[in-house]
Amino acid sequence: MLECLILGDSIAKGISQVRKECLAYVEVGASSRSWNNRFISKVPVNPAQTVIISLGSNDYEGLNTEVELLALRTRVTADNVYWIVPAIKPEKQEIIKKLAFQFGDSYVILTKLSPDKIHPTQEGYRRLGEILK
Predict the structure, then answer these.
(1) Residues with Cβ < 8 Å from 90, sequence gap 6 or more?
(2) Under DSSP, is residue 51 helix (H, G, I), strand (E, B) or coil?
(3) pTM of structure
(4) SS3 of 59, please?
(5) pLDDT at 38 over 90
(6) Angle at CA of residue 129, ends 31 and 97, nearest 5°
(7) If we measure between CA atoms, which residue out of 130, 99, 100, 116 comes closest to residue 57?
(8) d(CA 17, CA 90)
(9) Phi first, then psi: what are they for 22, rounded to 5°?
(10) Residue ranges per structural domain of the chain
């Protein structure tokens, strides 16, 4: 069984820097659709203990975030799945919370944000790494 898998965008990349033991499929600037197009087929079929998903911050109007994230979530098999709720885009935040509830997953709301109000600070990433163990 895979211990840890991180999937997503630049926030996922930041988490992978503090959770170096995790396998990570990340792409800076990825929307949920572009991430799926590039990586969904690489999501291991074997279960993982923990999967961390961070997508939605880069999704644009007209992209069906719910369909894209549902496609990803149905591929994931894990004991624990954690969704990172984007610090922006309230409609995307609600979709992620809804999917987490639907699958019995957990979600984490970002705190300790950098000046861009999107990404965590270094301390924020360190804290996320601890929370998501």
Answers:
(1) none
(2) strand
(3) 0.96
(4) coil
(5) yes
(6) 50
(7) 116
(8) 27
(9) -90, 145
(10) 2-131
CB 125 within 8 A of CB 15: yes
Per residue in 82-130, pLDDT tens? 999 999 999 999 999 999 999 999 999 998 999 999 999 999 999 998 8
What six digits make up the tokens of 12? 């996922």
CATH of domain 2-131: 3.40.50.1110
Q: Please answer whether residues 100 and 106 qualify as being in contact, where contact means their C-beta atoms are separated by less than 8 angstroms.
A: yes
- Specify the pLDDT at position 22: 96
Give the pairing of strands 23-26 and 48-54. Answer: unpaired
Category of 109 on φ-ψ map: left (φ > 0), alpha (ψ -120 to 50) or beta: beta
Measured distance CA(59)–CA(33) in Å, rounded: 8
Strand order across the 23-26 sheet:
23-26, 2-8, 48-54, 78-85, 106-109
Question: What angle do the packed helices 65-75 and 90-103 form, to 10 degrees?
Answer: 30
| SS3 call for 123 | helix
